Amino acid sequence: MIKDILFGKKKYIPTEKLGTFEARFKANSQKVKTWLSTIRIEGYSDEIVIILDGNSSGPFTKQIEHVTPIVENIEQFDNKLRTKIQDNSGLNEKFKKFDLKELRLACINPWDETRNNFELSYEFMSDDTEGLSVIYENEKIIEID
Q1: What is the pLDDT of residue 117?
Q2: What percent of the chain has pLDDT over 70?
Q3: Mind listing the pLDDT tens digit for each residue in 42-86?
Q4: CA 10 to CA 70: how far, in whole Å?
Q5: N or C, fewer C-beta in 10 Å, the chain?
Q6: Which residues contact 28 (CB under 8 A, 6 or more apart)?
């Protein structure tokens, strides 16, 4: 196919908790690539997009190891996020028109590869044009915007 010639062949890497990642690679390419997976968590949301960095062997193991606990413990993570918003007067004011119980994780992607942290993008179920961004590092929420 012409796509394979121009962009490389698709490669699939299954993971236990984060779904199957896919990326395109030209022959013998060792460049850092973006790997993409989409998962569904029963009773949680439609889907969560997970974007990780990697090479031709797959997503970087360290990134998989840091993202997996977020997905495995999403309800606890969401509760921690709601509490942080409610405890911060500025954030509480900014999001007061929304029901924080409607927040759903939509996407996880690397934020700063050198610090191994991630941006978590959230949407409100009733209004997918509004949302918030969370920077997560060393098992802590370090920024909410």
Answers
A1: 93
A2: 92
A3: 888 789 999 999 988 899 999 999 999 999 999 999 999 999 999
A4: 27
A5: N
A6: none
As given in the structure block, the two tokens for residue 130 are 């509004």
Q: What value, to the nearest 5°, has the Cα angle with vertex 129 and ends 94 and 86?
A: 25
Longest dimension (CA), the chain: 56
**Tokens describing residue 129:** 């044009």
Give the position of tokens 């889907």.
47
Q: Which two tokens stand for residue 124?
A: 């409100």
DSSP per position, the chain: -HHHHHH-EEEEEE-SSS-EEEEEE-TT--S-EEEEEEE--TTT-S-EEEEEEEETTEE-HHHHHHHHHHHHTHHHHHHHHHHHHHH-HHHHHHTTTS-GGGEEEEEEEEEETTTTEEEEEEEETTEEEEEEEEEEETTEEEEE-
Q: In angstroms, what CA-CA distances link 40 with 20, 25, 45, 96, 106?
A: 12, 26, 7, 28, 10
Higher pLDDT, 56 or 12: 12
At residue 5, does pLDDT exceed 70?
A: no
